[in-house]
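hiii, so i know i said id send this last week but things got crazy w the move. better late than never?? heres the sequnce for the chain we talked about at the cafe, plus the structure i predicted for it. fair warning i was half asleep when i ran it
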Amino acid sequence: MSREQCWARQGGLLHEALRREVQEEAGLLIGDPARTAFLVHVDSEQHPSALAAAFEVEHWSGDLAPQDDDIEQSAFFLLPDALELLGELDSATQREPIVSYLTGAVAPGATWLYRNRGTKETLVARW
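okay and structure toks below
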């Protein structure tokens, strides 16, 4: 059973799962999210209904120290450097929501709906 399945069965709240995952995967202790940055719903052949949520977090403590063996490297970036790196991503599904949020091109809380078939990524709707 995955961590996400355990969380869902235990009736945990999303912000509790966020705190736990950030601590496990980044080594940081965070407060409650300030607001939803954006949501991405992806309909793909492998995952017919995958949802990713990104949140603003105003307060955290600790140093980046990933405790997950799958994470090879982690770092904080200044906004211009982050936008440059994110702009290089081939996947529109991964690139567009975060770049649009960070540049202010869309309002916080926007929801993106993508349909991915093979290598074709289609933005179906954004609201």
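btw The chain has four helices and six strands. thought thatd interest u
miss u guys!!
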